[in-house]
Amino acid sequence: MTIRSAANNASHEKDAFGEKRGRKSESVFQDLKGRILTGELKSDSAMTEQSLAQEYACSQSTIREALMLLQECGLVVRKGYQGTFVTDPSVAEAILLLRLRINTEVAGITEAAKVITPEQVAELRDLDRQFMEARSQRDIYSCAEIDREFHLQIFRFAGMSALEPILVRTLVMLQKITLATPRPDDAWTHPNIVKHNRILDALEARDIDAAVSALKSHVFSSVTLLAPQFYGQDTAKLQAQHEPDLIPASL
User: How far apart are CA 251 and CA 146, in angstroms?
Assistant: First the structure.
């Protein structure tokens, strides 16, 4: 079942003590998030609660809850009676988001490498298997969602829960930047991206320096392939520009 069909099915269920409404708003949120991230919904047209309620066959209060969740992720900005608009990050914002991601994840993987267990490595390898399967099907949205979960799981293993909401929002906004760009065929067939297994091998060996190096190479090579209009196409140059700002691996 697709996210859209799940939302439609949920919309016909009876509200009972708010429980059904919560599930409906979550389904609508997930569907709208996918449409925003893949570029179907753009910043140049307003979304209104009334029009969305008609589209999803649900109440405006359900739509309002979904839009509030999107706002928390940074994906939309609400402008009163004008409606709700998809955010459109500038180049300066894209650069700052990348810097924030790298600094946060470097801190996380440094701590995770010290304490990660074989079971946790196996969990990450399973996520990587799912990612590769989605990539073989050229499912861009599933690839992005699994990749985000992969990175979040590493961060969770570090036990830095106070920073997790910041990383979640940062990763979602970077998805907004990378997913909306049309992907050339060679990005699927011969992606010049440092793969997850290099990160996994370093974590399994509890090699902090190798884990940090693999993470940075993975992230920088990903954004230069998927969003060159923001980050250029030279991975080494981009990494060199950010290195002075990075938090040291040893905290």
Answer: 28
The distance from CA 32 to its chain's CA centroid, rounded to whole angstroms, is: 14
pLDDT, tens only, 73-82: 999 998 878 8
Report the first-to-last Cα separation within the chain, whole angstroms.
Answer: 45
Answer yes or no: are the C-beta atoms of 127 and 135 closer than 8 Å: no
* Whether the Cβ atoms of residue 214 and residue 198 lie closer than 8 Å to each other: yes
In angstroms, rounded to a whole number, what is the distance separating the alpha carbons of residues 33 and 154?
23
pLDDT tens track for 12-65: 333 333 344 468 889 999 999 999 998 899 888 889 999 999 999 999 999 999
Q: Which long-range contacts (CB under 8 A, 24 or more apart) does 158-167 make?
A: 158/107, 158/108, 158/109, 158/110, 158/111, 158/112, 158/115, 159/111, 159/115, 160/107, 160/108, 160/111, 163/104, 163/107, 163/108, 166/100, 166/104, 167/101, 167/104, 167/105, 167/108
At residue 144's C-alpha, the angle toward residues 127 and 230, to 5°, is: 140
